[in-house]
Amino acid sequence: MGTWGTGPFDSDDALDLLDKLAEQDGAGRRETLGRIFRGVRDHPENMNWAYGPGEVVAAVAVVAAGLPADGAVVREIAGHGYEATAILVPGNDPALADAALAALLIAAGRDGAWHEGWTHPGKAQQARQTTSHLASVFYRYQNRHDQELPLEP
Questions:
Q1: Where are the alpha helices (DSSP H) in 11-120?
Q2: Which of 5, 56, 77, 150 has the maximal Cβ count within 10 Å?
Q3: Where along the chain do its domains lie?
């Protein structure tokens, strides 16, 4: 597996997931992402066997990109040569968003597997910024009716 950066799509596993999603229709993408999130939630001990943390973070980022006010992840998808509409899950799916946040907290929470491979302190900090940004998108989405929250992360 190759990893070249701290962004959600900066690994071979992440790009393989994007390729897979691009070949599916909306229902297939929703099922694929849901299966990843269920696997992480139900069997976190298998994090590096069933789904790598890079794939999980990428799956979470795909869901985040489909939520309001997250153009940054959409731009990252486009920057890797993918059309966002061919990757994102159409429609509003609060259950999928909740499952994505739960998987993010397992894979990339304080001691999550996503953070284990970053040996350089600067890269480790950038990786934490990536996952913090994703978490903030979901928290804003969950609290979208709270008028006190800013719209942009």
A1: 12-22, 26-42, 47-50, 53-65, 71-79, 94-108
A2: 56
A3: 12-142
* Each residue's pLDDT tens digit, 92-137: 889 999 999 999 999 998 888 888 878 888 998 999 999 999 999 9
Q: How many CB atoms are located within 10 Å of the residue 10 CB?
A: 19
Q: What tokens were used for 139?
A: 């928290």
Dihedral sign computed on CA atoms, order 108, 104, 48, 9: negative
Contact (CB, 8 A) for 87 and 29 = yes
Give 74's Cβ-side CA count (13 Å radius): 13
Residues 30-80 pLDDT 10s: 999 999 999 999 999 888 788 899 999 999 999 999 987 668 889 999 999
Angle at 142 between CA 124 and CA 8, to 5 degrees: 30
Q: Return d(Cα 31, Cα 25) in angstroms, integer.
A: 10
pTM equals: 0.90
